Amino acid sequence: MLSNLSISNWVGLIGTPLLIASGQVLFKMTSATAGELSVRNLLALFLNPVLVAALLLYGLGTIIWIYVLKAVPLTMAYSFMGLTFCFVPLLAQVFLGEALTLRYAIGAVFIIAGMLAING
Question: Would you kindly state where each structural domain of the chain is located, as residue ranges?
């Protein structure tokens, strides 16, 4: 089934988890500016451009995902969301300086192996 997909479907299958992972990194960046829970701080949070960008990425990813699901069965497509567990640590390392470990690498290999087993 996956071998018959168009380029745009492949872009969506891989791009949506990348958009979601990017949003997660932006959420983390937003959390550094979030004050204590109060009405004033919530208003400031809602006006935070980094949070707005994160929400836009999530929204764009969702729209793209809807179109991917027109062509790919959910049971196959959803396994690609596991890529977020690979992308988030990579992006966190690049943009936040978080460490990548051997355990992360081993886990990422298992996630990708699982995707291949599900869709192979």
Answer: 2-119
